[in-house]
Design the sequence.
C-alpha cells in the first residue's frame, strides 16, 4: 500500500514554479464549473502520518482554489451535542452541499484507527467498520458525490526528520508537541492498523491515493493535480455513476402477502379502548422518565396510506409524553438545503439527543414508497435505498437509539369512507385533492411497495409492526402497546445492541476533558 | 402586575367540558390558516412559578392543536456548542420558521432572572438586559412574528399547596424535587425580580399575559383562548405591523462625506508590499494561535462595490490562518430555510465557536446596501435594520467576539478598468453581467447608502474601517494591519468588553456539571 510513497519523490523549485500558475488557473476553472453544475458535492479526506503535511496541503488547496466555496471540517473532541448521537452524526452534519468542496481533516477513519491502536476494538470489529465505511462512501458516490481520499505517508525515519525540521523552524515549532513525539513511538502500530483499514476500504468508487509526504512541492503538486483531474472527469462524465442493482424480483404464486394476511376486522369498542389507552399511555410516560432511558433515545416512524390514522395515533402517543422531550417531524417535500444533500441527510439532522424522542409522520421510507410508485426518483435510487436505510437504522440502533416503525394498514373502502367524512367535517380543514384521488388508483402499486419494504427493511434492530388500522381504537392501542413492550425490552437489555454495536459507540477515549490532541486528525 | 392573578379564578368541570370542543376546533382552524399563510412564526413563552402549570399548559396546547407544526424548546444546561457562543445564540437557533409555533419553556428571560436572584448581575445590568430583550422582541414582531408571553402566577401559599398536591399524586410526584422546595424559599425574591423585569418588558408589541396558575381548567382555557384570539387577529390584519421609523435625514451642505475624504491615490509598490504583507500575515498567524484567543473568536465583515477586491483581501487573510480554524461565508440570496426566519438568522447561524474565525464576503449589511438601493425590502425594513445590526454586533462583542468590518472603496473608473480586465482574463471566469453594469448606474445611491451605514453602525465595539482600495497592495496591507492591531488591542484587554458586557456572558451558574435543575424554565 505504501511502497510507492517511499521512493523519495521530489520536485524542484523551478519545476514547481512553472507548474503552479497553470494548475491554479485550471483548478479555479474546474471549481467554477462545479458551482455552475450545482450537482456534485466534493468530499476530500486529508489523512496520514503526523508531520506528513496534512495542514500544509489544505492551506495550499485554499491558496489555489476559491476559499469561499470550500469548508474544512476538523473533528476535534466531539461536542456534547455530537456525543449524544451516533458517532457518524457529526460527519453527516458536516457534509458539503452540492457545488461545494468539503475538506475533512480527520474523518470517519480516525475513530476506528485510534480505537484499534488503543485496543478498544478487535480486528474483527475493525473489519466491520470498514464494511460500514464502504457502504457509506458508496452511498455518497451514488448520490452524486466525488469522494477523494488522500493518505500522506512518511517512513519512520522520514517522520522523525519532518518533526525535527518543523520544530527547528520558529514559524512551525508550535505545531510539534510532546504528543507528536509520542505518536512516533506508535508508528509501526499506526502503519499496521491504517494499512489494513486502507486496504479494506480501497474501493473502486472511492479509492485511496497514497502520497509521499516528505517533499512539500511534490505533495502539493500531486494533490492539486489529482483534485483537478478528478473534478474534470466528474464534470465531463454525463452518465450517472451508480452501483449496480438487481431488479426487484417477486414471488406471488398464491396472491397472499403480509398485508393480505392482516385481519382488518379487528376492533376494540370504546370502553376497553379507553381503559387500555389510559393504561398504555401511563406506562409509556413512566418508560420515558425511566432513569435508563436517559442514556437512550427513541425514533418512531409512522407510515400508512392517506387517512390511515397516523396523525391520530401520534397525538395519542404525544399525550403520554412531555412536550419538552419530543418533537414531531411531518415529512413533506425537502427544502432547498435538503435537496443539496444526500437523501438521508434530512432525517439524520433530526436524530434526537439522549433522553429525547423524535416522531416522524412519514419517513425516510418515502423513497421506496411514494418516490418509487410515482417515479420521483430513478429505479436505481429506490432499489439501493433499502440497504442505505438499513445502514441508517443500524447506526441508530448501534448507538442505543430505539427504532420503532409502524405501518398502518386500511382497506380501500375504509379510506374512501374517511375521505368523505373529512370533507364533511369542516373544522378538520382537510382538503381532499385531486392527488389524493389519483393516489387511490395506484393502490395496488403502493401495496406491492409496502410488501417489498417490509421484506427488505424489517430487521432485528428495527422491525416493522404492521397495524390493522380499519378500527382506530384497535390501531391506537396496538401501537402504544407495541411501543411500550419494545421499550421495556430495550431498557431491560433484552434487545440491547450486541458486542459489535456497543463497540461502535464513542470509544473510551471520547470521555470529556481529555486533550483535544487525542482527536487530532489521523 | 400580579394582582389580578390572585383573585382565585376557577372554571367548573361542566363549563370546561362545554367550552373545549369549540375552542379546539377553532384553534385547529387558526393553525391551518397559519400554515396556509406561511408568513407568521408564532413565538409562545411559557414562564412563571414552579408548580404553576407550565408543563401542563404546554401539553394541553399539544392536545388542542396539531403537534406536527409545534416545537417545544426547553433550555436546560447549555451545550458546549451553545456555551461557546453569545448567550442569545441558542434562542436564535431555536426560532420557529414561518407558519410554525415555537413554544419556549424557558427563554431569554430565564438567565437574567436567575442571575439577578444569585446577585450575579446588578439591578442596572438587569435593566440593560430588559432593554435588549425589548429590542429583540421588537425585531421579531417587525419581522412578522406573533410573540405571546405568558407568566403563570401563584401566591406563596398557593405554590406550597400546588407542590404538595403534585407530590401526593403518584402520577406527578416525580416532578417535585428538593430543588422545587428550595425555590419556594426564594419566592419573594423571584417575585421581586420577575415583577420588575416583566414590567420593564411589558411592551405594546409583546405584552405579558399574567395568568393565575392555581386552577388547571381556568389556566388552560385562558391560555387557549388568548392563543386563539391572537392568532385570529394576526391572520386577519392585512396591514403590516411595524415600529415607526424616522425617514433618513441627511446634511450635505458641502458635498463632502467620509468616502469623498478618502485618498484613493494611496499606493504601495511591490517590494514594500511583499515585505509588509509577510510581516502582517506572520503577526496574524501568531495572534490566532495566541492562548488568549482560545477564549475569544473573530468575525470579519467585508463589504465593497463589485471588483473592489474583497476576494483577494480575504485570500491574503486566509493565507495566514489554519484552514481548520476559519470559514469563509459568501453571502448570496438566502435559502428557503433562511427566508422562513428573521433577516439576521442566516448570519447568527454562522457565528463561530471559541477560537474560530468567520469571514463574511458580503454581510448582514446587505439590507442597508443592496436591498435598500434596489428596493428588495421596504423602507421600514432597512431603516430599522441599523439598530438591529448594532444589537447583533453588540451581542457578539459582549460575548468576547472580535468584530472587524471593512469597507473597500474604489473609484468608478477603477471599477470599470477591473471589469474589463476580468472579461479579458479567461481563467478568472468572472462574468460581467447586465446587472453589474446596471449597478454602476446607481453608484451615487450606493455611495450614499455606505455613508449612512458607516454613520449609523460604526460603534465602539465594532467600528468600520474604510479602506482606500484603488491600489490592491495598499488595501491588503491596510486590512491585515488593521486586523492585527485590533486583535492585539482586544487580546491585551485594551478594548475588552465593559462590565456590562462581561456580565452578559454565561453566568457563574452556567458552569459544566451543575444540575440541570438550575436551568429549569422560570
Sequence:
Amino acid at each position: 500500500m505504501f511502497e510507492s510513497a517511499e521512493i523519495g519523490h521530489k520536485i524542484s523549485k523551478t519545476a514547481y514554479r512553472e507548474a503552479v500558475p497553470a494548475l491554479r488557473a485550471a483548478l479555479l476553472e474546474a471549481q467554477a464549473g462545479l458551482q455552475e453544475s450545482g450537482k456534485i458535492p466534493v468530499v476530500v479526506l486529508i489523512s496520514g502520518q503526523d508531520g506528513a503535511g496534512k495542514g500544509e496541503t489544505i492551506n495550499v488547496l485554499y491558496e489555489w482554489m476559491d476559499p469561499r466555496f470550500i469548508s474544512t471540517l476538523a473533528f476535534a473532541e466531539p461536542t456534547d451535542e455530537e456525543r449524544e448521537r451516533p458517532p457518524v452524526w457529526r460527519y453527516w452534519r458536516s457534509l458539503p452541499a452540492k457545488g461545494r468542496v468539503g475538506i475533512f481533516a480527520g474523518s470517519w477513519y480516525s475513530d476506528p484507527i485510534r480505537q484499534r491502536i488503543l485496543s478498544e476494538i478487535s480486528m474483527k470489529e475493525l473489519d466491520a467498520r470498514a464494511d460500514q465505511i464502504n457502504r457509506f462512501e458508496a452511498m455518497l458516490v451514488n448520490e452524486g458525490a466525488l469522494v477523494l481520499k488522500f493518505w500522506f505517508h512518511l517512513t519512520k525515519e522520514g517522520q522523525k526528520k519532518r518533526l525535527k525540521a518543523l520544530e527547528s523552524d520558529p514559524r512551525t515549532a508550535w505545531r510539534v508537541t510532546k504528543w507528536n513525539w509520542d505518536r512516533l513511538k506508535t508508528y509501526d502500530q499506526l502503519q499496521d492498523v491504517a494499512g489494513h483499514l486502507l486496504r479494506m476500504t480501497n474501493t473502486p468508487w472511492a479509492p485511496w491515493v497514497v502520497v509521499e509526504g516528505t517533499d512539500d512541492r511534490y505533495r502539493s503538486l500531486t494533490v492539486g493535480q489529482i483534485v483537478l483531474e478528478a473534478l474534470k472527469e466528474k464534470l465531463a462524465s454525463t452518465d450517472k455513476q451508480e452501483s449496480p442493482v438487481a431488479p426487484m424480483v417477486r414471488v406471488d404464486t398464491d396472491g397472499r402477502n403480509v398485508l393480505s394476511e392482516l385481519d382488518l376486522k379487528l376492533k376494540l369498542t370504546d370502553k376497553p379502548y379507553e381503559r387500555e389507552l389510559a393504561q398504555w399511555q401511563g406506562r409509556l410516560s413512566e418508560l420515558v422518565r425511566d432513569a435508563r432511558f436517559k442514556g437512550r433515545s427513541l425514533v418512531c416512524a409512522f407510515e400508512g396510506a392517506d387517512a390511515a390514522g397516523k396523525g391520530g395515533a401520534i397525538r395519542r402517543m404525544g399525550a403520554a409524553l412531555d412536550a419538552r422531550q419530543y418533537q414531531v417531524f411531518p415529512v413533506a417535500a425537502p427544502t432547498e438545503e435538503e435537496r443539496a444533500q444526500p437523501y438521508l441527510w434530512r432525517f439524520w439532522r433530526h436524530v434526537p439527543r439522549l433522553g429525547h424522542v423524535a416522531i416522524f409522520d412519514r419517513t425516510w421510507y418515502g423513497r421506496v414508497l411514494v418516490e418509487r410508485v410515482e417515479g420521483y426518483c430513478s429505479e436505481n435510487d429506490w432499489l439501493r435505498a433499502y440497504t442505505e436505510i438499513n445502514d441508517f437504522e443500524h447506526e441508530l440502533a448501534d448507538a442505543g437509539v430505539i427504532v420503532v416503525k409502524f405501518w398502518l394498514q386500511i382497506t380501500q373502502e375504509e379510506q374512501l369512507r374517511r375521505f368523505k367524512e373529512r370533507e364533511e367535517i369542516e373544522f378538520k380543514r382537510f382538503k381532499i385533492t385531486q392527488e389524493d384521488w389519483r393516489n387511490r388508483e395506484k393502490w395496488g402499486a403502493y401495496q406491492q411497495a409496502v410488501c417489498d419494504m417490509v421484506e427488505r427493511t424489517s430487521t432485528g434492530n428495527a422491525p416493522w409492526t404492521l397495524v390493522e388500522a380499519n378500527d382506530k381504537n384497535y390501531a391506537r392501542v396496538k401501537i402504544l402497546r407495541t411501543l411500550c413492550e419494545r421499550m421495556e425490552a430495550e431498557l431491560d437489555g433484552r434487545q440491547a445492541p450486541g458486542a459489535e454495536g456497543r463497540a461502535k459507540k464513542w470509544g473510551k477515549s471520547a470521555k470529556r476533558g481529555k486533550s483535544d490532541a487525542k482527536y487530532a486528525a489521523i
